[in-house]
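Tokens for chain A. Residues wanted.
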């Protein structure tokens, strides 16, 4: 009877576990909740949710009249098939994760529930939106209306009305429409505060052309960067979102808009509980400018920055890897005029802490040109401040210069170096002639042909100066040395290379 024996042994194990859990030790019985456990428990019971998931009907009744379906006829320049075509509103799809790329290609860009409209008919897109004022201003996604010849909105009462595009912003994927027909329209309001992770949310939209669809879930995370744009700061929600929900609102339990649904992560293009919404704070700032100016003007500091990693923090002697590390300040920019230099670590903007380079970019871009900001930064381990008058963000562009490869060694880093001027690469800096593939520099991505511009905050022009700065870092007890390196493609970056004591 092997099954019976196994069953008995299992029961015996359960009984033993129960005795241990109950505190039966050496014949004495102890209460299950010992003082150590009691201290770990909440002192007061956790309160039941204010809005348990019994019914969202009252919220829906309140806000549904302000949600619209958006229908667009596309012009001839719109691409329905290319992964990085115009329908993405300027997104660089190569930077978008594969599971998102397919969705961005199709999200809100179909001609109806079945996908693209029938052959011979005009190409179109469907999406969602919501009215934000009684005179008929409507918010949706830029990628829904981009390259649209005509735009119509269908209200909850069934009316279909013509609308015009007031302005679009591809960087945040927000567009503002205006219903052409005069009238007083039901509208919704933005939330006054950001939702917390775990808060209930309700999404209403036009998935697969099925207008007025309501789904619910919670805020799963905040501050998500999905590689969709330069100012990514998405709310992640698990309310089911599908094609056609794009541009629709996410509401909190008070019926206030806390986000605009814009993307999902899914291998198939269907909902798997990973949806992303643009936070209401970002939407409001963009909409305000689109309504008044028809475009968005962003503040411009004029620095190239990168995150402060743990290695870089050690190289700079920082206690924590926080802030935005200045690679360099462009000549003539507000940052350069304010005295910011390569190697500075920006820690605060107007008193608000800056956790990383992305957050700095979002903060500055959220301010208008001409605004004065106070920057708190570290230079050489010492705190300082600067007041900067922001410029206007110029059009996107890249500056590239070329340098090719081609002798004294630096064994501690696993590099063979030479003055850049001697090998014809540049007038300043030290050229990387050879890289030990097993050395610490190779592990950080330094390659043959790169230029080392400065080490430990000091400009270098010959290998002996690199060695001197390494010795200085070692004597200061640093675990890593911070170098500014320029690649063969002209991109400069800071690299923290672990010091190899065995060299």
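Reply:
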């Amino acid at each position: 009877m092997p099954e019976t024996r196994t069953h008995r042994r299992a029961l015996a194990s359960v009984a033993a576990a129960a005795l241990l859990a109950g505190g039966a030790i050496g014949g004495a019985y102890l209460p299950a909740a010992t003082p150590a456990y009691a201290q770990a428990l909440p002192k007061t019971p956790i309160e039941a949710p204010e809005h348990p998931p019994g019914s969202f009907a009252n919220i829906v009744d309140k806000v549904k009249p302000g949600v619209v379906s958006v229908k667009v006829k596309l012009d001839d320049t719109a691409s329905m098939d290319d992964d990085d075509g115009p329908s993405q509103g300027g997104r660089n799809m190569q930077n978008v994760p594969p599971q998102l790329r397919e969705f961005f290609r199709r999200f809100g860009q179909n001609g109806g529930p079945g996908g693209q409209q029938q052959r011979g008919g005009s190409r179109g897109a469907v999406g969602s939106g919501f009215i934000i004022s009684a005179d008929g201003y409507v918010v949706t996604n830029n990628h829904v209306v981009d390259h649209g010849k005509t735009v119509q909105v269908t209200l909850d009462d069934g009316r279909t009305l013509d609308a015009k595009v007031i302005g679009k912003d591809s960087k945040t994927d927000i567009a503002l429409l205006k219903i052409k027909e005069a009238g007083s329209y039901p509208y919704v309001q933005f939330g006054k505060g950001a939702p917390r992770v775990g808060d209930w949310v309700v999404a209403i939209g036009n998935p697969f052309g099925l207008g007025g669809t309501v789904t619910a879930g919670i805020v799963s995370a905040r501050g998500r960067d999905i590689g969709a744009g330069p100012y990514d700061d998405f709310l992640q929600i698990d309310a089911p979102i599908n094609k056609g929900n794009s541009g629709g609102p996410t509401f909190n339990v008070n019926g206030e808009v806390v986000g605009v649904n814009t993307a999902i992560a899914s291998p198939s293009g269907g909902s798997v509980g990973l949806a992303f919404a643009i936070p209401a704070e970002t939407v409001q700032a963009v909409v305000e400018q689109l309504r008044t100016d028809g475009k968005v003007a962003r503040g411009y500091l004029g620095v190239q920055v990168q995150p402060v990693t743990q290695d870089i923090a050690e190289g700079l002697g920082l206690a924590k890897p926080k802030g935005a590390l200045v690679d360099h300040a462009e000549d003539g920019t507000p940052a350069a005029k304010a005295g910011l230099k390569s190697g500075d670590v920006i820690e605060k903007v107007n008193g608000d802490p800056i956790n990383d380079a992305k957050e700095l970019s979002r903060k500055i871009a959220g301010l208008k040109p001409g605004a004065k900001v106070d920057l708190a930064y570290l230079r050489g381990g010492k705190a300082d401040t600067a007041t900067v008058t922001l410029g206007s963000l110029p059009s996107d562009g890249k500056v590239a210069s070329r340098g090719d490869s081609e002798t004294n060694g630096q064994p501690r880093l696993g590099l063979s170096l030479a003055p850049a001027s001697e090998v014809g690469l540049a007038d300043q800096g030290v050229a990387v002639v050879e890289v030990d593939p097993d050395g610490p520099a190779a592990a950080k991505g330094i390659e043959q042909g790169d230029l080392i511009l400065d080490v430990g905050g000091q400009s270098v022009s010959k290998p002996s100066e690199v060695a001197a700065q390494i010795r200085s870092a070692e004597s200061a007890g640093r675990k890593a040395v911070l170098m500014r390196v320029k690649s063969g493609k002209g991109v400069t970056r800071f690299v923290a290379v672990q010091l190899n004591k065995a060299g």
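The first strand starts at residue 24 and ends at 25. The chain is about 20% helix and 30% strand.
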